[in-house]
């Protein structure tokens, strides 16, 4: 596997069609899914010459923890769908790569099992209808040794994922939301496992489990509940970025949920500079959505991101070859980022964040400079 496209092709061959559609698809007509890639492709880096740089040093930190590269594995649900070892294998790959692993609330292994792998682990939360249960999950994440909480705020309801509806997608009985189920038997009886023609069982499960009324007022409850750093994921509007920091966010993730929520939403990379300017160095700003190469990571850094979350590429690696496949995918991104930095004349991440970029619109090129 020489690039992430090779990883994707290997994963597509390894998975049943309905599972591939579940992890690869977006919402609606998948215009935002495609736009994430188109927007990244339309950004051009301006390399600097005669810098004397022989290699790009990717090492840095994320929320105070050292990392080999400014990467985190994004929170993704039900990873045992694509490999029997699921989240444990991907967390081991993240540990081996020296990058952050973000454990989904809807993981198919418990947060205790995942954190026990020893990776730098953050725990992702949705706002549950049962607030007491949300509090219990926060306590479990703290006790397990998670280093941060990531609250996803862009799922008041799940977007219409047409591939899953056409496939009448449901989880197999062997895959459960382990953090929410008291036993495997309970999981087999949940809504997520009840296939219905023309519907996604996972969407039905989400509707009955998550509280769509999450608002700014609720952030104060979470902020008061934990001393862990609080990261707000799903911010696209600059005003929302400012408000998130005012509400106690320690970091922000600019994200359109990988094109799986509002179809027609702005590409994440296009929203990034405005949020960075609005936040004005008051907290780190990360992004996800469409990252497929080390050059994409460098583009995000040049536009002001502290780091990026990588979703599908890591999951494709897991599907293609378990821990080894996931490690290969993360290694590819690290190698490509190091090479892109060296070729652009950036010896370290500080230089990478000062690299000029241009954006293309058809044959027209506009000067975007940097986000600061």
TrEMBL record:
<keyword id="KW-0560">Oxidoreductase</keyword>
<dbReference type="InterPro" id="IPR008259">
    <property type="entry name" value="FMN_hydac_DH_AS"/>
</dbReference>
<feature type="domain" description="FMN hydroxy acid dehydrogenase">
    <location>
        <begin position="1"/>
        <end position="362"/>
    </location>
</feature>
<dbReference type="InterPro" id="IPR012133">
    <property type="entry name" value="Alpha-hydoxy_acid_DH_FMN"/>
</dbReference>
<keyword id="KW-0285">Flavoprotein</keyword>
<keyword id="KW-0288">FMN</keyword>
<protein>
    <submittedName>
        <fullName>Alpha-hydroxy-acid oxidizing protein</fullName>
    </submittedName>
</protein>
<dbReference type="InterPro" id="IPR013785">
    <property type="entry name" value="Aldolase_TIM"/>
</dbReference>
<dbReference type="InterPro" id="IPR037396">
    <property type="entry name" value="FMN_HAD"/>
</dbReference>
<comment type="similarity">
    <text>Belongs to the FMN-dependent alpha-hydroxy acid dehydrogenase family.</text>
</comment>
<dbReference type="Pfam" id="PF01070">
    <property type="entry name" value="FMN_dh"/>
</dbReference>
<dbReference type="InterPro" id="IPR000262">
    <property type="entry name" value="FMN-dep_DH"/>
</dbReference>
